[in-house]
Amino acid sequence: MRLVFLGPPGAGKGTQARELAREWGVPHIATGDMLREAVAAGTPLGREARTYMDRGALVPDDVIIRLIGERLRQPDAKGGFILDGFPRTIPQADALSRLLSELGVTLDRVVFFDVSEGELLRRLTGRRSCPQCQATYHVVFNPPKRDGICDRCGSALLQREDDREATVRKRLNVYAEQTAPLLERYRKDGLLTSVAGEGKIDTIHGAIRKAVGA
Ligand code: AMP
Predict the structure, then answer these.
(1) 13 is catalytic
(2) pTM here?
(3) Average pLDDT, whole number, for the chain?
(4) Ligand 1 pocket residue status of 88, Cβ below 6 Å
């Protein structure tokens, strides 16, 4: 299974990708998570990426393309993958096509998560994440069992810097301008499937499985 999960920030791509990747035994490749790990580790990549991430802007294409090129060449990605948060621009989509053809494989589906803007704002500003294991929660819709503590690993949950309201609005604008045009491209390629991204996590999970024929 080689899939791209496409949609605005807060659409639930990460939550669904993590679960389905575990079920299918393929890597969940999330450029946002990879960048946050680099930021936490204080690497040169992390230091560069942070200046863009904290203000809700996209990290430059060449940096991301290099990162994903290295990741997709690793052995665990041979049997399939779920890409979450990549590609996000037309040049990234072009680079992905080139990379996959070099690797001699093709995408099976691009799954678009359809969620209204009001819902995205509610979700993102209430989102809390675990800095240790990357699990995500929501103060109202998906609270942890113990307030502010990760169910999975017991770490203290944080609000991401870029989940504050002003930055969230910026990220939604960046999505509309730079990422939304990819929908048309993948529709033309016959790869796009939309799923309703609002509702219960389990229902959406089922809709994705059906959409990709799993
Ligand atoms: P995410 O967790 O996917 O919302 O990503 C968080 C932030 O990481 C984004 O707001 C961007 O600054 C950066 N980022 C993640 N993926 C990409 C990408 N494919 N291209 C450029 N920037 C990215």
Answers:
(1) yes
(2) 0.90
(3) 95
(4) yes
